[in-house]
Amino acid sequence: MAAAIVTCAHENFEASQNVIRMTANSDNPDVFAFMLEVRVNCVDCGQPFGFKGLNAGVSYFSPRCSLDALEARIPLMTPTELALLDQPQQVPGEQEYESLKKNPPPLAP
Ligand SMILES: [Zn+2]
Predict the structure, then answer these.
(1) Do 33 and 78 meet the contact criterion of CB atoms below 8 Å apart?
(2) What distance in Å separates the CA atoms of residue 106 and residue 92, rounded to the nearest whole number?
(3) Domains in the chain: how many in total?
(4) How far, in Å, from the CA of 41 to the mean position of ligand 1?
(5) Of 29-38, 55-64, 91-100, where does mean pLDDT reach its minimum?
(6) Residue 104 lies in a domain
(7) How many angstroms separate the alpha carbon of residue 50 from the centre of ligand 1?
(8) Which of 46, 50, 65, 82 is most buried per CB count within 10 Å?
(9) pLDDT tens by residue, 36-71
């Protein structure tokens, strides 16, 4: 079913989120992963927004979305896992950018 075409400018938003404690099954209450579920709606018209670039499904290692793309499912690192990181994660290209800031190339005449 196609969504209704609206003339709303979509200027105000609300997001709902839920953190899920993942357990193997109802007989095993040990939590083995945490998952953030997020939904976004326009407050003015009530229409939901979808998430781009995510494959549908559930993964404990990378973000996914629901089949209708309306819910992002993002695996979380626990504080213990964060402490195991030796240093903050770097964005690809960030080192080159920092190097260029320190030693900018000469300007063309
Ligand atoms: Zn709207």
Answers:
(1) no
(2) 24
(3) 1
(4) 8
(5) 91-100
(6) no
(7) 13
(8) 65
(9) 999 999 999 999 999 999 999 999 899 999 999 999
